[in-house]
Every structure is written in structure tokens, then in C-alpha cells.
Design brief:
Strand content: 35-45%
Number of domains: 3
Distance between the termini: 90 Å
Shape: elongated
Largest sheet: 6 strands, antiparallel, barrel
Helix content: 10-25%
Radius of gyration: 31 Å
Number of helices: 12
Length: 601
């Protein structure tokens, strides 16, 4: 059954004839159950919509009170959203909507014409406009969205990014473009500094970033009716990120909202939550609703061109993220839960990690941060996380590189071509050490310029700490027994990145990679740590890199046989092989490279 709004004139008529005592009961009877009553059980087909028709819509401006506002049909715009995807152009009327204009978060508001449900408010006309002109998605398209998912690329022409300033909103003259009503992305527990750091990425998703709160769950959260607000939960726990839209219709346990796509993700499994409006902020640039996110009430199952669809009931599982910050002998733990989606999770991990770190009472700028932890995956070995980050001299927050590093790891996991990465748990620990601890390699030398096969040599390295006196570190290299006399070897003293390049080559576009998720995880776990000084000994025999495998000292005859068999680009041949390596942990990032020659006598 389609649940819609009660016929208000009936209530006014009854209120005039009932005694005051009965009126009090009647008010409770008619208003409280109004979320399951109806203006009409019918819908109005698009072919019956005519210019000049008078109608109304429902939305919430403050609190839980669903309010009615009037509108008039200007006309129908065929094929606006796409082939056979038309919209109804309307003008909103009444003191509130004429004051606020079309409000971010109003998308999905049910629109009635002749007492029949005609569609969902979904589009707005430009900015700084003097009249509240909006677009309505026809109800048939809301209740029966396109079967095929709409790609983000195809939807981007309609879903424009939010403005950094008025001029960047659209390439066309201001006020001349119909675009989706912005979906407020509500950040609870996040400071403006966090939003500023990730503003370009948030804008690219087409969101209006808004600060809000988290409301305690209520037993009636799942009792939705048209005009109420609900949204998609992206992060919850000690901080939360969620969207907010207006409910268009409810059919049994199915909920239709927004009237336009969230991100055109197609079929999804995202938690759905009740949203409660505190107030509506009026702005000539972009009016928006200020909301609190309530309890989880079900699952968002579909995100298509004409509507977001949800199902009441249990929400889907999320990814637990635990962040621990240790500083000065004290620790503070934070817990979050994130959605599991390849397009969203990497960015959400970055934002949540950055906020959990920098908005922590133990955090302070100007310290060296050591990151460790693991990402546990279903059916696979965990991904080990370890790196150290020194404070920078720029205005960028010191915790930002940690967030970017985590985003990069998750991007590699979620965009792999082998299988979907099912993450069980993320556990991160950040230890803060006072001061700036980093080192640059100034020079290096061998104790002697030649050695015999099997001999071990000492390598001394001059390191320059940040604003400190230079110091010497010592490592050893052993010449392989099988090296031919008269051969020239190379000793590479370097940071992790240089040794990775020298031993693994460069990855070119179209080149092959790991053969599966297990191999990708193995590659991630083998990556060298940036807080170590590395000394590698290279011998002049080829190394073959085949997908994730490193095959040193391969005879040229075998390389010639194998090289033609794999797919093009999946094999690289390096002229040297890494015979041995040593490392020294220094407690801070290391940078630089020195190459030394060693003759075998």
C-alpha cells in the first residue's frame, strides 16, 4: 500500500464541530497516525499533468513536523534526464519556500496534483534566482526506476559539483541550469579543518558538506511516511557521516526518497537511518537543512537516476575501524564503522582517520608520528601497515600524510581486478614522538674498494638529522660466493623508495601486476618501510619481474624462452639482481641515495 499525506481540510472540518475534549483526542488520532493515512491512494500519470495545475508538497523545515507548501505546474520537460526520462517544472509558493527557495535536503519531497501523488521534488533552477523554480521527477519513474544501473560518468552531466564560489558552479550563466537539489552530507564530530582538507574530493561527489549532530535512536525511527527525512549512513561511531533526503513514498517495507541519485551507484548495500531536522538555514547561495542523524532503520538497496530506494529492517554490516593515539604515556582509543564500497571506502578511511587523529586531545603538531596496524580481510592474510611521518614546514597538517597513505592502500585493495575485498576489521595505532625526527643521506663509503667472493665488508653512511649534528651509521654487505672474479658489483645506500625502484623496476601503464588478491597483499606487505636506512648489494645478472614474482639471476636463455609467453607488459627484465640487503631502523623518515662500486678480485 502506498502511504501518503492526510487530507487536511477534513481535519479542519471536524475540528469545528467536535467538543474541545473530543477535539484533543481527535488531534492525536488524526495527526499521529497521519503518517499512514493518505491524500489519495492514486498516482497521477505524467500524461495527465498540465501547465497551470495547482498542487502542494510536504517537507520538514524544523523538528518532526511535516509541513505543506503550495506549488503550480509550469510545464513538462520531456527527455530531460535522458531518453523517456522527463521532469515536471513547478514554481513553489508560500511564505516559507519563497523565503528559503529550494532547500538542500528537500529532494524527494512528495508532490501532489489534484490530490494524487505526481512525483518527487528533485531539481532546482540555478542560484540567486528570485523565484523558487524546481523540477519534479514523475512518480512512475520514482517507483519504477530504470532497470540498468546508471554510471557515475553518465550522471555527471546532471549532478554538478558544489561551488567553491558562485562562478564555479556551472559553465552556463547562473540561474539558467536545472540541477539536482544538493544532498547534504552531514558530518557529526568533524571539525571544519577536516572538511577543508578533503573539500575537492567531497565536491567532486556533488555534496553539500554540512555539520550536524547524532540523535539517540527512537522506537518510532522506522515509522516513515512521505515528507519525513531519511538518508544513507557512510560512517558511524565516535563520529558520523551521512546524507539526508526527503521520503517520497512508502510501500510496505520499501522506501523511496531523494527523487534523484545519491551517486548513481546502482544496486548497493548501505545503511539507512532516520534523519531529524533542527532548523532550515536560509541562504541566497544555498539554503540547507541542519539535521541530526537518528537510528538505523534498514538498508539502501538501489541508487538510480530517478530515486534512491531502501528497505526497512536490519542494516547491512559495516567495516569496524579502531584508531589508537599514544602520546606522552597516555592513550586514547576511538571506534568507527564505515560502509564497504569500492568508490566510497578509501575516501571515508582517509577522512575518518585524519579526523580521529587530529581532533584528538592527545594530538599536537610538530611531532613525529609512527603508524602501525593491520587490515584484516576475509579469507586472506592481513595487510600490515607501518610507516613513519615527520612534521612538515608547510601549513598542511602533520596528520594528513597518514590519511593519504591509508587512502592509497584502500584504493589499491578495492580497485584490484581479481576479487572484491571483504574487510573484516581495520586496526590502526599512531604513536607520537616529540620533535622532528628525519634523516637525509649525505655520503657513504666502503672500508675498501675491492673484496673476494664470500667476503663481508663494512659500509659506513653519513646521515644528517633534521637540525642536528651529522652521525655515522654502519652496515655490512657480503659478496656472494659464486661471483666471478673481476666482476664489478654495485652497493646502493638509499631510502626505501630508491631500493624499491632499483629492485622492482618501474610500473608502466598497461603493465601486468599481481595475479590475484593474495599476491597483491604480499606485495603490500613486502614494501620497505620509510624509517629505515637500506644497503643493497647488486650483482650484474638479470632479474625477471613476472607479475608479482621477482626471479633474480635468471639465465638469458630462459628469459628469451619465457618472455614471449606471458601477456605483453607482464614481464620486465632488470640488468641487475639484488643479492643481499641490510637495513637500520632510525625512528624517522630517511631520504637520499648513494651508489658505490665494488670490484671483486
Amino acid at each position: 500500500m502506498l502511504l501518503v499525506r492526510p487530507h487536511l481540510p477534513v481535519f479542519r472540518c471536524l475540528s469545528r464541530v467536535l467538543p474541545l475534549a473530543i477535539l484533543g483526542f481527535a488531534a492525536v488520532f488524526f495527526v499521529a497516525p497521519s503518517r499512514s493515512a493518505a491524500d489519495s491512494n492514486e498516482i497521477l500519470p505524467l500524461d495527465q499533468v498540465r501547465p497551470g495545475m495547482q498542487g502542494y508538497a510536504y517537507t520538514i523545515f524544523a523538528g518532526d513536523q511535516v509541513e505543506k507548501f503550495d506549488l503550480e505546474v509550469i510545464g513538462v520537460m520531456p527527455n530531460f534526464l535522458g531518453p523517456k526520462q522527463s521532469i515536471i517544472l513547478v514554481q513553489l509558493k508560500g511564505p516559507k519556500v519563497e523565503h528559503t527557495g529550494v532547500v538542500a535536503g528537500m529532494s524527494g519531497s512528495p508532490v501532489y496534483l489534484e490530490g494524487k501523488l505526481a512525483g518527487a521534488l528533485s531539481l532546482k533552477l540555478g542560484i540567486f534566482t528570485k523565484e523558487a523554480i524546481a523540477g519534479v521527477t514523475p512518480i512512475e519513474d520514482v517507483l519504477h526506476p530504470p532497470i540498468q544501473p546508471v554510471s557515475v560518468q553518465s550522471a555527471s552531466a546532471q549532478q554538478l559539483t558544489i561551488p567553491v564560489d558562485a562562478a564555479s558552479r556551472t559553465a552556463l550563466p547562473n540561474g539558467s541550469v536545472l540541477e539536482p537539489i544538493e544532498t547534504p552530507l552531514v558530518f557529526s564530530g568533524f571539525q571544519p579543518m577536516t572538511l577543508q582538507q578533503f573539500a575537492p574530493q567531497i565536491q567532486n561527489y556533488g555534496f553539500v558538506a554540512a555539520q550536524g549532530g547524532t540523535a539517540a535512536p527512537r522506537p518510532e525511527d522506522a515509522h516513515l511516511a512521505p515528507g519525513d527525512m531519511a538518508g544513507m549512513v557512510l560512517v558511524q561511531g565516535d563520529a558520523s557521516i551521512s546524507s539526508a533526503c526527503t521520503v517520497t513514498a512508502v510501500q510496505a517495507d520499501r522506501v523511496y526518497l531523494c527523487g534523484h541519485p545519491f551517486l548513481s551507484l546502482g544496486d548497493v548495500q548501505l545503511p539507512m537511518a532516520r534523519t531529524r531536522v533542527l532548523t532550515t538555514l536560509s541562504s541566497d547561495l544555498a539554503s540547507t537543512k541542519i539535521v541530526n542523524v537518528g537510528g538505523s532503520i534498514g538498508t539502501i538497496t538501489s541508487d538510480h537516476l530517478t530515486a534512491v530506494t531502501g528497505k526497512l529492517g536490519a542494516p547491512p554490516a559495516m567495516i569496524p575501524l579502531d584508531v589508537t593515539l599514544a602520546a606522552g604515556g597516555a592513550e586514547k582509543k576511538l571506534h568507527f564503522e564505515l560502509v564497504n564500497h569500492p568508490k566510497l571506502t578509501p575516501l571515508l578511511v582517509a577522512i575518518t582517520t585524519f579526523s580521529g587523529l587530529t581532533q584528538n586531545s592527545l594530538y599536537g603538531e610538530g611531532t613525529t608520528l609512527h603508524l602501525s596496524g593491520e587490515i584484516r580481510l576475509q579469507g586472506h592474510a592481513p595487510v600490515q601497515i607501518e610507516n613513519t611521518f615527520a612534521p612538515g614546514d608547510s601549513l598542511s597538517p602533520d596528520g594528513l600524510p597518514i590519511a593519504i597513505a591509508m587512502q592509497n592502500v584502500f584504493t589499491r585493495l578495492f580497485t584490484n581486478h581479481y576479487e572484491a575485498a571483504a574487510v573484516d576489521h581495520i586496526n590502526l595505532r599512531v604513536e607520537s614522538a616529540p620533535g622532528h625526527q628525519s634523516y637525509s643521506i649525505e655520503s657513504a663509503w666502503l672500508e675498501k674498494g675491492e673484496a673476494a667472493p664470500g667476503e663481508t665488508l663494512r659500509v659506513r653512511v653519513l646521515l644528517r638529522p633534521y637540525r642536528g649534528a651529522a652521525r655515522v651509521e654502519e652496515a655490512t654487505v657480503r659478496v656472494p660466493d659464486q661471483v666471478t672474479r673481476g666482476t664489478s658489483l654495485r652497493v646502493l645506500v638509499s631510502d626505501a623508495d630508491w631500493l624499491n625502484r632499483a629492485s622492482r623496476g618501474f610500473v608502466f601503464p598497461g603493465a601486468g601486476g599481481p595475479a590475484g588478491l593474495d599476491q597483491l597483499i604480499a606485495l603490500l606487505n613486502r614494501e620497505r618501510r620509510n624509517d629505515r636506512l637500506y644497503v643493497g648489494l647488486f650483482v650484474p645478472s638479470p632479474t625477471m619481474l613476472w607479475d608479482d614474482k621477482e626471479l633474480p639471476n635468471v639465465p638469458l636463455s630462459q628469459i628469451n624462452i619465457v618472455d614471449g609467453r606471458p601477456t605483453p607488459g607482464s614481464v620486465q627484465v632488470l640488468r641487475e639482481s639484488l643479492a643481499s640487503e641490510a637495513s637500520i631502523a632510525l625512528g624517522g623518515p630517511v631520504s637520499g641515495v648513494v651508489s658505490l662500486n665494488l670490484a671483486v678480485r
